[in-house]
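[job 0412] stage=complex_fold ligand=pyridoxal-5'-phosphate status=START
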Amino acid sequence: MTDQTGSSSPTGGSRPNQTRLLDGEPHGVRGARGEPPGLRPTWVEVDLDALRDNVAALKAHAVAPRLMAVVKADGYGHGLVPSARAALAGGADWLAVALAEEGVALREAGIDAPVLVMAEPPVPSAHALLDHGLTPAAYTPRFVATLDRLGRERGRPVAVHLKLDTGMRRLGVPPADWEDACRVLRSSSGVRVEAVWSHLAVADEPDHPFTTEQGEVFARGLELLRAQGLAPDLVHLCNSAGTLIRPDLHYDMVRPGISVYGLEPASGVTGGVTLRPALAWYARLSLVKRLAEGEAVSYGLRWSASEPVTVGTVPAGYADGVRRALSNQGTVLVGGLRIPVVGTVCMDQFMVLLRDLPAVAGDEVCLIGEQDGVRVTADDWAAWLGTINYEVVCGIGARVPRVYLGGGS
Ligand SMILES: *Cc1c(COP(=O)(O)O)cnc(C)c1O
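[job 0412] stage=complex_fold status=DONE, emitting structure tokens
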């Protein structure tokens, strides 16, 4: 880690210009990319070819013949519709979303691939779901009864994905209710069980015995359903971690999310699959200033210069997903060097310690991604913030424009 005291040598790295002192001549560091897409110079770049290739690699790795790409939460912050299109181009057979609204948005964009809505919506939303040809997950008697009625009214049984709770204890029918669920489903002519599925709680911890236990509970559930005459065409269980490292649990379809975007579900959980992060986040320095010894920065004056230094302002803040917990913590890249965040992160801006780097306003800042062969990753952010890469990419605000690279098709 770079020291953040404002003393000692220039910040990290080994670029030749790092020791050049600011001399009033605005030579700048560099700005490798094209013009920012918006008025405010911060933007996310999403490489749709990477996303497509990740899906293709996951599908090639899977024992299961089918893949359902999870594109909930605006495609984990990458953009719902472009991510969905790139995933389909990579060979995804199904898409999965968390909300009916997300499924409707896919349909309104003209995507006609099968879409699973993974949580039951409130009962009054069931209509909208069916009107848009979305496939509901089902696990409560009340929702099944609603779908049954709608299916009979419409003269066509509603295909559902029956979710079993095998130990996650979030959604799904718990084992004690499986027999009852079978009874209800057998007597519901307006509903057809197209698939049975469940969700793994600790697949990202390769040594945890609970995944195998969940697999056994799931297998028992399937057996019971078959014995009751509810034989599904389709069985799916595995999230990214399961897809990558539990081929014994793949069944007919895998259901990866985070790995579609090129991120590991947990550090080192790759199953030997090469993934490429699809997302990068850039900005341009909006202001560069020289501070005298003892001068402090930002709200609370929580960082001060212990010698004369250059500080830059980056036009992105916690309203954009640069979490306030990154205050005096974490680094960005400028000119291929690791540059520490100094002072409190504000709503729309934060400051970085350029020290003696001859940077000027307009120079490129890499928040997540690669610059001159040096990387800052969502995993780095997760480590600084005590969270997971999922939360980092999902947390990039809607007001940061997304730029799409590659066709993904
Ligand atoms: C989010 C989600 C997934 C995808 O999980 P990843 O760890 O991102 O691969 C799969 N299934 C369900 C039910 C989910 O909620």
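The mean pLDDT is 92.
[job 0412] exit 0
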